[in-house]
Amino acid sequence: MRVQRGFTLIELMIVVMVIAILAAIAIPNYLEQSKKGRRADAVRAVGEYQLEMERWRAECYTYAEVNTCKDTDGDGTVETGERGYPSAPTSSFYSIPSGGLTASETAYSITLQPSGKQAGDRCGNLVGNNTNKQKPAWSVASCNQ
């Protein structure tokens, strides 16, 4: 009598089902972790922008973009900002909507809106301004942790 080698159809179907169940659990978790990582990048970018805006205000006494700063040291000469006016962060996962970047003499605000692969993110928009200097805030409060 000859010994049969190989797998039965039932065994193959069980293996395929196990792989499908694992994929159904793993893929959404992976995608959520990817979005979470991109959210962290956005928070870092807005935080850096906030630091640059505060540096600009310290040098020029205004958040607004001006060609020259005021006489900051009282010697009668007008200085320009050392590193220039801060540029807005750029990303392929977030965009700045119309009106999402404003600056005046006493205030600034930046809003990043999810786009591309990040579009439809559950945390919504990210807002940084001179009133929430500690950390930029998401539209959805549960994301601000």
UniProtKB/TrEMBL annotation:
Q: Which UniProt keywords apply?
A: Membrane, Transmembrane, Transmembrane helix
Among the GO biological process terms of this entry, one is: type IV pilus assembly
InterPro entries (UniProt xref): N_methyl_site (IPR012902), PilE-like (IPR031982), Pilin-like (IPR045584)
Enumerate the residue ranges of region (Disordered): 72-92
**Which domain of life, per UniProt?**
Bacteria
Give the matching SUPFAM superfamilies.
Pili subunits
Q: Which residues cross the membrane?
A: 12-31
Protein name as annotated:
Prepilin-type N-terminal cleavage/methylation domain-containing protein
